[in-house]
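agent> fetching stored inputs for the S-adenosylmethionine docking request
agent> found them:
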Amino acid sequence: MKIAVSRSIVDQVFLGDCRELLAALPDQSVDLIVSSPPYNLGKEYESKVALDRYIEEQVPVLAECARVLAPTGSIFWQVGAFADRGTLIPLDIRFFPVLESVGLIPRNRIVWARQHGLHARKKFSCRHETVLWFTKGDEYTFNLDSIRVP
Ligand SMILES: C[S@@+](CC[C@H](N)C(=O)[O-])C[C@H]1O[C@@H](n2cnc3c(N)ncnc32)[C@H](O)[C@@H]1O
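agent> prediction call returned; pasting tokens
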């Protein structure tokens, strides 16, 4: 598969496996990547594996994201926590060094506080997820005035 990239590709949706779709994109052709990848929880679209293996499997995806990002591009990687037999490991802690290792530059760790979720009995209930914002370079778009809260 080869995807023809034009400046107006923003109005097209491609349905498929991100690993194949990313491979079809030229270098430095993407301005913005926003993803909430599988969290390795054993949902219907994933097989739950050991945490280290899960992260290893995500590395090639993030390497491809770094390859296709334009020099002024940004990636927003939204993750929650990996739960296993009572433990709870925030995934962004594991993803942060991976994003750095593929040459991306950290800008913000955004916390999404939410009301809903499972009620824990032996620890505080998890009520947030995080969005890691990394850029390809030091020149990037950030329209602060558009999102200021009076
Ligand atoms: C944590 S969910 C994100 C849900 C999304 N934020 C939403 O609100 O619908 C992970 C999503 O990644 C999709 N997914 C899993 N493996 C994928 C792959 N290899 N390529 C593309 N999408 C994949 C799943 O189908 C699922 O919708």
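agent> quick read of the result: DSSP finds four helices and six strands in the chain.
agent> awaiting further instructions
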